[in-house]
Amino acid sequence: MDKGGKAMEGMEEKGLETNCALLIGVVLSPPAISHKSYGETFYSFSVGVDRKSGYQDVIQIIVSERLIWNLEFQPGDFVEILGQIRTYNEEQDGRNKLNVVIFARDFKRCDESLRLEHENRIILEGFICKKPIGRISPLGREICDIMLAVNRMYNKSDYIPCIAWGRNAGYASNLSVGTKISITGRIQSREYRKRDNDGNTWVKTAYEVSILKLEALSEE
Prior knowledge:
Radius of gyration: 18 Å
Largest sheet: 12 strands, mixed
Low-confidence stretches: none
Oligomer: single chain
């Protein structure tokens, strides 16, 4: 079993098999205080994970002070993060924006001499909460957008945007709201241009899980 497989197996042992994330990449920004909860301080920073195509996904990380109190890391350092995808709404310019982050459960700085390959692996199990939207890309490829509700502790859920391609897209387009599915994929960042009513244009970033494998488990 490879390093990534062992790490994901460790997450399953912790009871996190319905929402598992493994990232190995390069720190892009220094940690900054994100928020405090019940006396515990959480930090945020970004990590760059390279794709085989050469494109770099820039992923936002939230980590507790408990995991990094004895670690020093800075932009350029190689790190491994095990955690979960978390989503939350934030009001921005009078509108709700869905933020998608990786909440770290385990964090370590990697030995640069090991020269580990970048890793981006996501495993989710949840329910389709909106009607899947099938479409055709400008290059003629079949695509399907899925909003997946993944339950977590304390009766909370994370609403995670996912995108399927090709055969998976055709299959997902016919699934109904309430269907329970499991997916394997990667979290990706995608820049797009937004134009307002005054004609002003600016670049924004969207985050989604690109599905590599999809399976329907049940339908409610």
